[in-house]
Amino acid sequence: MEKNSPSQDTELLTEIAVAYYQDEITQEEIARKFGISRIKVGRLLKRAKEEGIVEINVRYHPVFSTRLEQQLLERFPLQRALIALDYQDEEEQRRQVAALVSAHLAQTLKDNAVVAVGQGRNIAAVADHPGNVPIRNCHFISGIGGTHRPGDAINADHISRRLARKFGGISETLYAPAYVENRALKESFMQNGTIKETLDRARKADIALVGIGDMNENSYMVKLGWFTPHEIIDASLNQGVTGDVAGYDFFNAQGQHVDTVMNDRVIGLSIEELRKIPCVIAIASENTKAMAILGALRTGAIDIIASSAQNIRTLLNMTK
């Protein structure tokens, strides 16, 4: 019997998949149409999924997300949980979580509110989410200094400016580097009047937008050069660090602070200062961050968590 070529196999798998998933023809009818057994149809449909010809995405009913949120609020002292549908594509997942945060801000931001802004891709996605939002004349303030990469779109200052354009109002820059080489240098910067005044205003913010980081070799801090991959692995394996809030305040799975080589070297709001802000919104869209989210929630600094359904389900399973 002559074997099919790879292209013919793909065509057959596609045709059968379309018949079953799109045209809703039963497997028995497909078997008769193609002159093959019912068992073989099942195998071919399975292969179509394995080879990526078929992708099955489950769309959750809003009630599903509401139930997840209720379960989370029963276990942690949170105001809200903004839970996005699951997507395999990381960028799309980030956009979906950002859409929820953007909508929440549009509904809750009050005129002349002060918002402290963190750094990172997830917060940048909120600023860049398209759509009309009400003008609130808010004051957006960088809650952490700038990185060494000029023009970086995920710098807190750049995000703050884009949020100001989006919601109206003004943006205030923290004129300091995010990272310095030692504690003495940080103390020198903190004595500067301009830096001190900006951070004092950020500490009194009504809302703070922060990211949650996890400990892996591809983290944002490794890309910035703050940590080497070896230091990240050492902090994770030997010190029990599971994540960070706002880019530098490190904690373990119990939410306890862990001393790292980054201590006293970052200019920005500390986790103690975040606790005093009425509403801290933490964003973690990546589906690898359940453990980091758990530690962050246990710090007591987070009031609203924005993440994926997969992360929240994993988190709930870990805290049964």
Distance between the termini: 56 Å
Q: Compute the CA-based radius of gyration.
A: 24 Å
CATH topology call of the largest domain = Rossmann fold
Structural class: alpha/beta
Largest sheet data: 9 strands, mixed
Helix content: 40-55%
Counted by DSSP, the helix tally is 14
Query: How many structural domains in the coordinates?
Result: 2
Summarize model confidence as the mean pLDDT. 85
Query: Could you give the count of β-strands?
Result: 9
Q: Low-confidence parts lasting 5 or more residues at pLDDT below 50?
A: none
Q: What are the secondary-structure elements, in order, as H or E? A: HHHHEHEHEHEHHEHHEEHEHEH
Assembly state of the chains shown: single chain
Described by the principal axes of the CA atoms, the overall outline is: elongated
Per CATH, the class of the largest domain reads Alpha Beta
Strand content: 5-15%
Domain Sugar-binding: 62-317
GO molecular function: carbohydrate binding; DNA binding
Family: Belongs to the SorC transcriptional regulatory family.
Organism: Erwinia billingiae (strain Eb661)
Folded structure, characterized:
With 320 residues, the chain is of the alpha/beta class. It has 2 domains: 6-51, Arc Repressor Mutant, subunit A (Orthogonal Bundle); 62-318, Rossmann fold. The chain has 14 helices and 9 strands. Strands 1, 2, 3, 4, 5, 6, 7, 8 and 9 form a 9-stranded mixed β-sheet that branches. Helix 4 packs parallel to helix 14 and helix 13 packs across helix 14. It is elongated. The mean pLDDT is 85.
